[in-house]
Amino acid sequence: MREITHLTAIDMRRALDDRALSVVDVVQAHLEQIEAGAAVNAVVTVDPEGALARARELDAQGPDPELPLFGLPIGVKDTHDTAGVRTTYGSIRHRAHVPPRDAAHVRRMREAGAVIVGKTNVPEYAAGSHTVNRVFGPTRNPYALDRSAGGSSGGAAAALAARQVALADGSDMGGSLRNPASFCNVVGLRPSPGIVPASDAANLLSPLTTAGPMGRTVDDVALLLSVIGRPDSRTPSWASGPVERPTDGSLRGVRVGWAPTLGGRIPVDSEVLEVLEDAVRVFADAGAEVVEACPDLDGATEAFLTLRAAEFEAEWGDQLARDPEDFNDRITWNIERGRELSGRDVMRAQEQQTRIIRAGADFFSDVDVLLSPAAQVAPFPVTLDYPHEVAGQTQQHYLDWMRAATAITMLGVPAISVPAGFTAAGLPVGLQIASRIGTDASLLGTARIYEALTDFGSRAPAGA
Length: 464
Description:
By secondary structure, the chain is of the alpha+beta class. It has a single domain (2-458), classed as Amidase signature (AS) enzymes, CATH 3.90.1300. Helix content is 37%, strand content 16%. It has helices at 2-5, 9-17, 23-36, 48-61, 104-111, 154-161, 178-184, 218-228, 270-285, 300-322, 329-339, 343-366, 403-409, 440-454; strands at 43-46, 73-77, 115-120, 132-133, 137-138, 140-141, 144-148, 167-172, 187-190, 210-215, 255-258, 289-292, 369-373, 389-390, 393-394, 415-422, 428-435. α6 (154-161) packs parallel to α7 and α10 (300-322) packs antiparallel against α12 (343-366). InterPro entries: Amidase (IPR000120), Amidase_CS (IPR020556), Amidase_dom (IPR023631), AS_sf (IPR036928).
């Protein structure tokens, strides 16, 4: 069964089309892999009966070119509703919650022939880039079980790395697709805002948060995006879809901006920078024009923290007042910061984000892609709540060490984390590549070329 779980989603789909594999074979292999890798704690609610029943239905129906995800086992993030399957949001308040309907993009995955095998672990309410909660405990990094898998889509990234699912969804406010992809040697794409419709359950049209795809290869991510990245008339969009799979191309003549510390705005551990310097040389050796350059991100951190706190207070402020034990200390702190804000504070943060977005548009008129760290540190010990120091600089709170990702969020552009190599200790490092809003397909094309030139993503964890 190991041979099946090590196939890419694209190759798995091809084998299902040719009937070289049955859907039951594929699903059973992944269910066994989940059981064998239980120590990783990535897929926290498993639905073997439902998944195998769906597999038998699909086998009886036969391959269908109109079902691009036909027979592919998928893990769904535990903050995304799945009809009839427990969805806890990583919260003790919802530990037994079973939604009556799917989130919008989950429904699209089912309709495209995907088989949902289970729910992937998250931090409490998906807050933070370290996946641990009071319902299921921590998700561990498949490359080193004593290390974090990142977050908030840490269960998704770890499940992919451990070969427990073929594809996974995630979401990203301040790096929750990109950070765990970096930590787990997989690919995570934050699409252009509006490409993936907001969940039916979403109360806010957020300028920060979007769902997105994760996979072990760029083509796998592009396949999933082609399904979930379609316009929805109920969701006002910044960027229009659909997003097709990227075309082949070359890096020759591509204008690349390299911002190792985002223009001196963030600390980055030296072991991460050493890996990423090699990644940048790959672009240069392939004929890209590389210059050290960064868009104007002044004020990005302050605006992000303001908008995030305002969203947290709007969504959970009343619940915190009623049931303060429902939240951990970090989320409580974030909600309380939101209570201190005025309407003027929020409007000024929105004005600042608008200025940053316009500065980014100017930057990408001269530069095709921006390279930067997806995470400022390599995977840290799973027992830590967050890294309290980065490159010798004290981090003030649980969001401070995530600025490599949160600053790019404020640009309002698509950004992808692709495997870039490993530290001397064998821990994964991801390269963040960003491009102009709406250029998701060409961004995927650039990432695919880099992936082909390096192939770090094919290195599986021991025992997977």
